Amino acid sequence: MTKTSNGAGGQPLENVDYHAIGMSSLDASDPFIIAQRQLDTAAELLALDEPTHQMLRWPLREMHAHLPVRMDDGRIHVFHGFRVQYNDARGPCKGGIRFHPLETIDTVRALAAWMTWKTAVVDVPLGGGKGGIVCDPTTLSAGELERLSRAYVRQMARILGLEKDVPAPDVYTTPQIMAWMMDEYSVIQGHNEFGMITGKPLPLGGSEGRGDATARGGVYVMQEAARIAKLDLGKATYSIQGFGNAGSNAARIIADELGGTVVAVGEIDGTIYNARGLDVHALEEHFRRTRGVRGFKGGDFMPNSRACLELTCDVLVPAALENQITADNAGRVKARLLLELANGPTTPEADAILTDKGVLLLPDFLANAGGVTVSYFEMVQNAYGYYWDLDLVRERLLRKMTAAFRAVHEAAQTHQVPNRLAAYLVAVNRVAQAMKLRGWV
Ligand code: GLU
Q: What is the pLDDT of residue 393?
């Protein structure tokens, strides 16, 4: 047995062999260890009983698969894929599929845990799950991507479905990939099942407003928080890390709809900065062509993708990957408000530093829950076969995000705790209640 400080309340569990259950790392920066530590703090405050706490510390079930895919050169490459079904007490598991070269089972577990808290905090009748394939999608042709996506569904079909587990896009996965996956699943079932996956293209049962829902939901949360903090978002400056779906849509909504000034964008190749504001539309065009920010004429380039985290701005928007704001750089964060559109961008050590500095933190599974909220709307529309217009989607998203923020804010006031812990209190309590009512614990 491996001893770690990974058990309930920071103690190792005597009966768990951590290597045997496939923990890919026992490092304090491992996202799943972080997710468990965050839960432990909430469990203590909520005085959860031991079985409830243990059920929430671990995924209910998970599947690992090996995926043989014929590459364009005729050879077969075997990829590794995962799907983690963390908790389905409140409804079918829900969460994206990531394609990433550094994917690990622990990262997928952490993300699946965060999906469980995310669906609970916005109070949609879904659980939490996540999937991943270890691959570098930038090196794959469209044909290889399609065959890989279909191979994943062929292996996972037995655990997916409307009533079981409903995937969606995430890092490096797109509406086109969702379409291939839906098609493969439908072929296996012998009939169309549009609702088995969300984030689909509009002609195949996608929802209006799903494309920018993660960013827009975050902006709605930020607007509600700014009202209380008396921060004028139109006069504020913003620095954004990541220019994928969440980051680029956030930049556009901030510039076009809030009238805010986006002063910096960080991407894999570096950070582009202009104190007078970047032209986000021109940057989008540049990014579409080059997949980076280097060479953009409208700002100064710094060859460091994390430089954007430390620049002078009012609002910092991490919208890329986990573990970006750490004990090393948190002290140099200048923003007053942190809008976490990425999953897990801030480590617990960094969290403590930011809290001490008085940064107003809008935690990931609240701030980025707009995506899964519109995914839920998409499932409802698929089930009805009746589709809503964009105004209705946005109106309902606004209502969900505002209610979620208010519940978290109220918990923060009542318990005198930071927003992240408050969000945990709200979400964990809802999942624990569902498990209790079902008689699991
Ligand atoms: N991948 C997104 C997330 O992390 C969306 C999940 C979904 O729509 O199911 O929230």
A: 98
pLDDT per residue over 214-228, tens digit each? 999 999 999 999 999
The pLDDT of residue 9 is 44
Pairing of strands 128-134, 76-87: antiparallel
Say yes or no: CB of residue 95 within 6 Å of ligand 1: yes
What integer pLDDT is reported at residue 15 of this predicted model? 57
CB atoms within 10 A of CB 281: 12
Identify whether the C-beta of residue 400 lies closer than 8 Å to the C-beta of residue 387. Answer: no
Which atom, in ligand 1's list, is nearest to the CA of 365?
Answer: 10
Give the whole-angstrom CA distance, residue 409 versus residue 402: 10
Residue with tokens 């995924």: 59
Domain with CATH 3.40.50.10860 in the chain: 60-204
Say what the pLDDT of residue 360 is: 97
Q: Which of 94, 118, 130, 400 is catalytic?
A: 130
Q: What pLDDT shows up at residue 20?
A: 65
Question: Which portions of the chain are predicted below pLDDT 70?
Answer: 1-21, 24-25
Pocket of ligand 1 contains residue 91 by CB under 6 Å: no
130: annotated active-site residue = yes
Q: Is 371 in the pocket of ligand 1 (CB under 6 A)?
A: yes
In the chain, CATH 3.40.50.720 sits at 213-367
Domain 60-204, second-level architecture: 3-Layer(aba) Sandwich (3.40)
213-367 CATH: 3.40.50.720
CB contact burial 350-365 (16+ within 10 A = b; e otherwise) = bbebbbeeebbbbbbb
Task: Return the pLDDT at 339.
Answer: 98
Q: Is residue 375 lining ligand 1, measured as CB closer than 6 Å?
A: yes
* CA nearest ligand 1 atom 7, residue: 372
Going from the Cα of 168 to the center of ligand 1, the distance in angstroms, rounded, reads: 6
